[in-house]
Specification:
Helix content is 37%, strand content 23%. With 283 residues, it is of the alpha/beta class. The protein has a domain of 193 residues: 3-Layer(aba) Sandwich (Rossmann fold), CATH 3.40.50. The strands form two sheets. It has a six-stranded mixed sheet with strand order 6-7-8-3-9-10, sandwiched between helices. It binds adenosine-5'-triphosphate and magnesium ion.
Amino acid sequence: MSQTQSEPMNDDPAMSPEARRAPADEPDIIIRVRDLVVAFGEKVILDGLNLDVRRGEVLGFVGGSGTGKSVLTRTILGLVQKRSGTIEVFGRNLDEVDTEEAKTFERRWGVLFQHGALFSGLTVGQNVQVPMREYLDISQGLMDELAMLKLDMVGLPRDAAMKFPSELSGGMIKRAALARALALDPDILFLDEPTSGLDPIGAADFDDLIRTLQKTLGLTVFMVTHDLDSLYSICDRIAALADKKIIATGTIQDMLAAEHPWLRSYFHGTRSRQALASQPPGT
Ligand SMILES: Nc1ncnc2c1ncn2[C@@H]1O[C@H](COP(=O)(O)OP(=O)(O)OP(=O)(O)O)[C@@H](O)[C@H]1O
Ligand SMILES: [Mg+2]
């Protein structure tokens, strides 16, 4: 199976040109990846990958460990070179933008990398100001104020601004990294396993925070996750990576109904039972 039945890819060569043309009510696509091939030397990681991310959705991105979820994220961000294919963000082909336009795009997305990395030699406040320093030409006083606002947004106390990462708990570090990702008021938030390493309550709180921010700020969220609870509770749609491609996209219900062996074992396996059991019936 290539895609779930309900969502044919509109670049499917088997479809007529009419069917491929977007109808007026088709969702607004903020990231469009087509025929993407990424390889490191002889090792092909992604091979003919297609993916649409819709404006305003939380898209959960799943796949086995080492299958290329972070590589795809980093390729969209321009940090890994692709071998072929196209990536459009905000309706623009990234191969066709000049350095200046690329820079404006970088301001419009925020990233929380997998290993959360804050700069250990900088305080939390200084960490949040790093993107401001790079992209905005504003006074120190204004940056201090903005950094405080971002800490408020992610639920960190203001005195966290003066602390170094080593003085924070894992959950606080994630929140600080999220504050930094939000520093420039992005349109798209990329989160690579944001709840890994958090206890279930911390992870649920973090999910709630992401959902609230997404709603209040109108963000599009692209979230790599292994966390089934996150997939159930905050993702509008899920895309699954296996065999170097997206093998399915759809709602959690589509994933549960899918026949693909990897999806069956992922969503119905032993480790998923608890998450399933915790869902109210009929969801
Ligand atoms: N810069 C690189 N050079 C060479 N190989 C790389 C590079 N970055 C990633 N890889 C390889 O690409 C493959 C996919 O890696 P990636 O980090 O995207 O996996 P992942 O799906 O994010 O896994 P996880 O769930 O464990 O984070 C792995 O085999 C990895 O070793
Ligand atoms: Mg990864």
